[in-house]
Amino acid sequence: MLTFRRRSVRRRFTPLVPLLTLALTIWYLCQPPDSPAVLALHFNAWRIGNALGGASPDNIGGSDDGPGKFPIHIPSEVGVLIKTGYGTRHRLREQLVAFAVEGGVLGDEGRDFLVVGDWSQKALSKSASKAAREDAGDDDAELDKAEEEEEENENGEPQPGREIPELGVREIHDAIGLVMESGDIGEAFREHERFGKYRSLRGAVDAGDAVRAEQLGGKYGWELDALKFIKGMDMAYRRMPHKKWYMILDDDTFVVRTSLQALLRTLDPARPMYLGNSVGDYKARFAHGGSAVLISGAAMRLLFAGRPDVVREAYVRSLDETWGDRLVATTLQRVGVYIAEPYSRFFNGETPGLTRIRPEIACVPIVSFHGLRDPGAMLATGRTMARNRMTYRNHHSFYIPRDAPLLWGELWDLYARNPLETYAAAEEPFQPGDLVGPARGDPDVKSWKGVRSADACRRKCGSRRRCLAWSYDTETRECRGSPWVVADAAADGNMLTGVNWAMAKAMGECLPGGI
User: Fold this and answer.
1) Hey, what's the torsion of the CAs at 455, 460, 463, 465, to 10 degrees?
2) How far apart are CA 114 and CA 246, in angstroms?
């Protein structure tokens, strides 16, 4: 009798299943592309795929990739938008020189890249800028030398008629002023608090009060940065309309050309795509601006040629948005373009020495570095990518093509103070330093108090499935373990550090020369 009732209920409700499925499908298709339901579905579909091991692209940059399905010439086919600010403008020149030393990233200013800021300036000529630096007591000898290296042609002779401007470019475009003066912002918004801060900065710059302008740039620069993104993208699309890809960079971001090329030659620019180092919750998953942002030409056309209403709304929202890089994502969501989560692993938001190298991505190309703010840091990175990398490979007698992408794991070879094998010693397999790096408060870092010795700390890390590196404070007796390793983190003299060799050894299987 009970079995009969169950069958009767099943027969009664079975026809409702396809109807319910159809109703949910229709409801979903009627939702706007940026509705919470749609965003949640996209995000959780990626999470499920990633957990099952099928969401990450494989073999990008491998030895058998060939020329790639989608050939790309970065200087002429990737339009680059560089964001700077009055308070950080000194970074720009070194960034451009570093790209020139690396080679093959930027094309011609105006045609292939442009720079936007929170003020406008047409730079001085090379001779005038040198005189200004001499008056200020700063001859920038290192940058001048690098520029002179780039000015020489194949015969070692200077190229005639070339001038290096004071900031490395002919013009800084005032993106915020263009937003304020455009018809896309109504009269009611022209007195917005952010525009008031912008006017204060611009007034100090125009008055030649450098001290006041520096103070205001440092105070308001972060807020004003949010207004540069959409206008900068609009300018990039209007001035460089036929690019296959567009890339947004901060003035402390460095891009590895070989890795970028390896990635782009696998991607179809005719598809609306948005890539970067994804952060944030499902409602606004966005590409971290400092890690470099890539947007396909198709996505830019969809937004700026197809939806001027969405662009106008984005200008208004930029007045209250905290993070401009998040505004890029929420704006693209409104035209149905979402961040491509599987490609997040190619982008990095740290300096080379503090980049977190995880075993699962050690053999993946790394596209970007961020936070290169100290004088000389950007140029040193450009030289390392262009010269030291080849020197290391030649010194260790193994052949890798010149255009092979840089892998995450290779950062150890380039920046670490000790060979990785140092930490495989049978006795005391640790060294002074901190391979965990600055990670206070990070939920992925496990901390133990009152650990008796460095060797006890090593054993604790070795007993955990996801612990790759450990560090031990001999004074506080605190032991920390992380699922990553950094190559060059500064540490106090009381720190000892090492790796879980079983995991670390596996990292070297696909690296040049192995371990």
Assistant:
1) -120
2) 11
121, pLDDT greater than 90: no
DSSP letters, 328-372, are: HHHHHHTTT--B-GGGGGG---S-GGG--B-GGGTTSB--EEE--
pLDDT in tens, 431-456: 899 999 998 788 999 999 999 999 99
Domains of the chain in start order, with CATH, are: 26-55 (no CATH), 74-150+164-346 (3.90.550), 422-510 (3.50.4.10)
* Distance in angstroms (rounded) separating the CA atoms of residues 20 and 35: 21
Beta bridge partners of 256: none
Q: What is the pTM of this model?
A: 0.85
Q: Are 372 and 254 in contact (CB under 8 A)?
A: yes
Helices (H) and strands (E) in the chain, counts: 20, 16
Quote the strand ranges of 118-244, DSSP E.
121-122, 171-174
pLDDT digits (tens, 9 = 90+) for 466-503: 999 999 999 999 999 999 999 987 777 889 999 998 88
Residues 96, 170: Cα–Cα separation, whole Å? 12
Q: Which helix (DSSP H) or strand (DSSP E) does residue 278 occupy? A: strand 278-279
Cα–Cα dist 474/455, whole Å: 11
